[in-house]
Design a protein that fits this description.
Layout: H1 3-13, E1 45-46, E2 52-53, E3 55-59, H2 86-98, E4 104-108, H3 115-132, E5 138-142, H4 149-158, E6 161-163, H5 171-177, H6 183-206, E7 218-224, H7 231-245, E8 249-254, H8 272-287, H9 292-295, H10 309-316, E9 323-324, H11 330-333, H12 341-351, H13 358-363, H14 368-371, E10 375-376, H15 391-395, H16 408-412
Parallel strand pairs: 3-4, 4-5, 5-6, 6-7, 7-8, 9-10
Antiparallel strand pairs: 1-2
Helix pairs in contact: 2-3, 3-4, 4-6, 7-8
Length: 416
């Protein structure tokens, strides 16, 4: 099979892996090297949910010894198969980079022979790019769960980011659909990466010349909608991964139906807005001080598809509103619908000089129509609106079709 045909198969197969982002890498080529992760050497392009494009995203192979029922590449699938050699991946990466098609490499793989053998093949690609060709662009490698500590160490020396995919939200889900995998094995690999990242940081504080280990950290991916697991359990798993292993990102990927599926799998994908709501809730957990049980309480374990998670929470906790933006602490300001982290920090600076008014908020370009019922300013105090039965309808923006020409800045500056 020629390389072009392999590329068609293995680039298409890689689309199911969402856990790629080049944020956090800081490599720069010397006079002899090639490429860069920052500055003029690489141009990042992000989708609204944080995924990074401009990487050559492929599988080393879609052959796999596992029989995960939700995966198109499982051993019992009759999908077309292909396999690159490490040398072919190196050549593709360099050729595409020199043509300005890509700025880095995202390399994953099915598991062939064993986790250690597969990890050795992935490392060989990264090692050759770094040591033989002086490539200093971004490299994201899959950390195969169950691979040895020595191989994880080698992968982290060459890669900017590693990712060991947890795949399903609970261990029970894995036992049902992928009994050859477990949270214990994947968690062990994540712990190894986390420990080495922290060790590397400590070593570099003592000596800047100490070698880096996965400087952009680690990420993982969960498939949602393949099982009936509610959003509360998904977010609880993500929150534990962030806390225990200091992950940079958890990526949520909606289940995509595949041919000849197990009867336990759903016939269609979950709505795309569910992914979006999980990313919003994930952001609130990480940067806004929310707890899982606040966003997805036991009586309502799934996030609303109609309302964003912060607004849904505010409507359940109306007794806390309206909030005086001139007196409230930062923690409470962050819980006002439409109020983002940067906006809150600007309000705190304004408060040092004068009382905040609606005009001040308008200059900060916040969604005032959504915020008015929930705030008190120097010149505004809502009366009775917070108790209105139609409040949700009043503060929920109508659904609109985004324009193809909407600027990236407009798409990325929406406040939660």
């Amino acid at each position: 099979m020629d390389v072009r045909k392999k590329l068609e198969i293995l680039a298409d197969a890689a689309k199911y892996d969402a856990s790629c982002s080049s944020s956090g890498g800081k490599r720069k080529a010397d006079k002899e090297g090639l490429g860069s992760v920052e500055g003029m050497g690489i141009c990042h392009s992000y989708t609204p949910d944080g995924r990074c494009v401009s990487l050559l995203k492929i599988l080393l192979t879609n052959f796999c010894i596992y029989d995960c029922q939700y995966c198109i590449n499982r051993i019992s699938s009759d999908t077309a198969r292909a396999r690159f050699t490490p040398a072919e991946v190196v050549r593709l990466t360099l050729d595409f980079y020199k043509r300005n098609y890509i700025e880095g490499l995202f390399l994953s793989s099915g598991v062939i022979k064993s986790p250690d053998y597969t990890m050795e093949q992935l490392i060989e690609v990264a090692r050759t790019l770094r040591e033989v060709h002086g490539f200093q662009g971004y490299i994201h490698l899959k950390a195969v769960p169950g691979a040895s500590q020595e191989l994880i160490d080698a992968a982290g020396r060459h890669a900017d980011r590693l990712s060991a995919n947890i795949e399903l939200p609970t261990d029970g889900d894995l036992k049902k659909l992928a009994p050859e995998k477990s949270f214990a094995v994947t968690g062990g690999t994540m712990k190894e990466i986390s420990t080495r990242v922290e060790q590397s940081k400590a070593e570099r504080k003592e000596s800047p010349k100490a070698p880096k280990f996965a400087p952009a950290g680690q990420s993982t991916q969960m498939i949602i909608g393949a099982t009936p697991t509610p959003d509360a359990a998904i977010l609880d798993t993500a929150n534990r991964l962030y806390t225990r292993f200091k992950l940079k990102r958890v990526y949520y990927s909606g289940y995509s139906p595949i041919p000849i599926v197990d009867a336990r799998l759903p016939a269609k994908s979950p709505p795309l807005v569910r992914e979006h709501r999980l990313y919003q809730a994930d952001w609130l957990l990480r940067f806004y001080g929310f707890r899982v049980d606040e966003l997805a309480p036991p009586e309502q374990p799934d996030l609303s598809l109609e309302l964003d998670p912060k607004l849904a929470w505010a409507l359940r906790r109306r007794e806390l509103f309206p909030v005086d933006v001139n007196r409230a602490p930062r923690e409470l300001l962050l819980r006002i619908p439409g109020m983002g982290v940067r906006t809150v920090d600007r309000i705190l600076r304004i408060r040092r000089w004068h009382r905040v008014t609606l005009a001040d908020l308008g200059r900060l370009r916040v969604p005032l129509a959504r915020m008015r019922p929930f705030i008190v300013t120097a010149d505004h105090r809502p009366t009775g609106i917070i108790d209105s039965a139609r409040l949700a309808e009043r503060v929920t923006p109508p659904a609109t079709q985004l324009s193809l020409f909407t600027s990236a800045r407009e798409a990325l500056t929406g406040e939660l």
